[in-house]
Amino acid sequence: MSSYFNAVIFCTKRKKEKISSLYILKTSLCVYLLYKIFSIRRKYMMPFKKHHCQLGLGSDSMLLKKPGLWANLYRSMRKMCQVAQYHPDTYDHFRSYPAVVAERQRQLYEGDKNLIHPLSLVSLCWHTIMAFVNLMHMFISTLRLFFVLTPPRTQTVHAIDKVLLAFHALCFLDILFNFNIGYTEKEYSHIVMKRRKIVCHYLRRWFLLDLASCLPVAFVLLYLDLKDTQCLLFAHILPLLRTPRLYTALIDVKVFTKIFTRSYIWYGMMRHAVLFVMTAHWCTCFVYLPPVLCYYWYGKIPWKYNRFLKDPDRDLWNIDLQNRYRKGMFIVLSSFFGTGFSMFRASEPEEIVIHALIILYSAMFMVYTLVLLLKVYMTTYSSTVRYHELMNQVEEYMTYKQFPAPLKKRVRAFYNYRYQELYYREETALDCLSGFFHIFHITAT
C-alpha cells in the first residue's frame, strides 16, 4: 500500500489550486484501481513463462535421458522400437500425432520393457528384410531340391547349401524377433503389446512352420556324408514348408511400397509381379517332379522321362543346371503366354498330368492378370473420361449461348488450367480420408 499513498501525495502536490474532497476521492480511486490491475497481472501472468523441464524427458518418446554413451545408444534403440510417425501404416491406426504420442506412453507404461511396436522403424526395416529373405528362401530351397543333382551315393555339400544355410540362420533370427514384436488385432484394430499374448499368438500361427523350415537337416546330413537318398528327400522337403510365408511377404512388400506411393494400383502391380516370378519358378521346378522323385526314392534317374531335353541318355546329372532350368522355364512361359505345348514332348502319364496342371494354372493366372490390367486401365483413365464428359457439356452450353470465339478460347483455357485434364486426383482424395475410411478403402480394394 506504500505505492498507493505515494501516488496520492504526488497527485495532491501537483495541484496548486484548492482541491475539493470529491476530486481527491476520485483520483485516489483511479490510482488504487491501477495498482490492483498491475498487481493481478503480476500475480497471474508470471507463471505462464516458458517452463524448463528438469525430469530429463527430452522428447515425445517419454524416455529418460541418462549420461553416458551406452545409455544414449540404448535410449536410441528403444526410441526406434516405439511407434514411429513415419511408418506407412501409422496414421491408418491413429488419427493424429498426439494419438501417436499417447500410444508411445501406453507402450512405455503398460507394455513390457523390451517389446518392439509393430509400427516402429525397427519393425519396418526387419519386415522389409524378411520379405526378401522369405522370397529368396522359397526360391533357393526349390532350386536345390529339383536342380542340384549328382550321381547316387556321391552327394556332397553344394554351394547352394551354404547359401541356404545363411538364410536358415536369418529365418531362425526371425523367430526370435516374432516373440518380441507386437501384433494388430484386425477385428478391433487394437495393437497388442503384452508378451504373453504375443507368444501365444505366434505359437498358434507360424511357429511350427517357421521352426521346421529353418532347421538345416539337409546340410547336416550332407556334412556327415549320409548316402541315404530317401532321408535326403525328406530333409530337402522341410524348407519347402516356408512356402505359406508368401502371404506375409506380399503384405510386407505392400507396406514397403507405401513409402513411395499411396496408390493401390502400385500395390496390386507389385504383388502381381512377385506372384508371377515365384509361380513361374515353382512351375519350372514342377516340370522335373517325376524324375526327381524317382532319383531320391530309388537312387536313379529313369530313362523314360525328360524327352524334351533331347538328350540320348536323359540323365539329369549329365546336363548342367543352367541348361535344364532354361528349358524348363521356356516350357512354363510358353504355357503362360499360350504359345502351345508342342515343345513339351512327353509320353508318360505323370508328365502329361503335370503339364496339364501347369497349363490350367497358367491360364487362370493370365485371366487374373487380364482382369487386373482392365481394372488398372479403368481406374487410371476414369478421371480423364469424366473430364472429357464435362468438357462436352461445357461446349454444348457455349454453343447454345452463342459465345464468341475469344470467350470460348478463354473458357477452354480456364477448364484446362483448373482440372489439368483430370476430373479428380486419387492421391489427393485419399489424403483427405480419415484413418477408418482409409483402412476401409484399402480393404475393399
TrEMBL record:
One of its GO terms (molecular function) is voltage-gated potassium channel activity. GO terms for cellular component: HCN channel complex. InterPro entries: K/Na_HCN_channel. It comes from the Eukaryota. One of its GO terms (biological process) is regulation of membrane depolarization. The chain crosses the membrane at residues 20-38, 121-143, 163-181, 202-224, 273-298, 328-346, 352-374. Keywords: Membrane, Transmembrane, Transmembrane helix. This is Ion transport domain-containing protein. It comes from Manduca sexta.
